[in-house]
Specification:
194 residues, alpha+beta, 2 domains, four-stranded antiparallel beta sheet, 9 strands, 38% helix, elongated, Lsm12-like, AD, Protein LSM12, LSM12_ABD
Length: 194
């Protein structure tokens, strides 16, 4: 194990034995001396050639650590991060969470919240306006959020949103039917297969 002042170089290949007597070998991808945590990149347990397992090892529970191959050249540079893209993604995630929180605090029913999430998966341009769902600034769905509660200018947008609402509630009903009576469902499947 790494003693005082010792460390594992990124890219080195090491072998160690865990407290469960399992032998692990892999390439060092990270090492934190204060916490004695070692991250190893090992061949994939799924057997896929282009995949790898990353194992985090607490060196307090590892013995017999041996450096098999020390890295001689400098490790490749880290990939650059697109800070603008990351900031945009974080902003969008925050807006979505705030929208969900708004719906809950406004007293929107669970059906309304679920419908909003279903619509939002397909059409990102949807928002809350008090207890109403506004889609693409063209369609307004008011409580109790059924197809007949969809209002807007006749056209493709209204038709599309109505289809999403209709499918959402059909899927919810199908889910309830399956959850209500799984025994009857399995008996029905058995009787039709015989």
């Amino acid at each position: 194990m790494a003693g005082p002042g010792e460390y594992f170089a990124i890219g080195a290949y090491v072998s160690c034995r865990t407290c469960q007597e399992t032998r692990l070998q892999g390439e060092v991808v990270a090492f934190d001396y204060p916490s004695k945590m070692l991250a190893l990149k090992c061949p994939s347990s799924s057997g896929k050639a282009n995949h790898a397992d990353i194992l985090l090892l607490n060196l307090d529970y590892v013995s017999d650590v041996e450096v098999i191959n020390e890295r001689t050249q400098t490790p490749p540079p880290l990939a650059s991060l697109n800070i603008t893209k990351l900031a945009s993604r974080a902003r969008l995630e925050k807006e979505e969470k705030l929208s969900q929180a708004y719906a809950i605090s406004a007293g929107v029913s669970l059906d309304g919240q679920q419908l909003f999430q279903t619509i939002h998966k397909t059409i990102k341009d949807c928002k809350w306006q008090e207890k109403n769902i506004v889609v693409m600034d063209e369609v307004v769905i008011s409580p109790p959020y059924q197809v007949e509660n969809c209002k807007g200018k006749e056209g493709r947008a209204l038709t599309h949103v109505c289809k999403i609402v209709e499918k959402h509630f059909r899927d919810v009903e199908n889910q309830k039917g399956v959850q209500r009576n799984p025994v009857a469902q399995s008996q029905k499947e058995t009787s039709t297969s015989s």
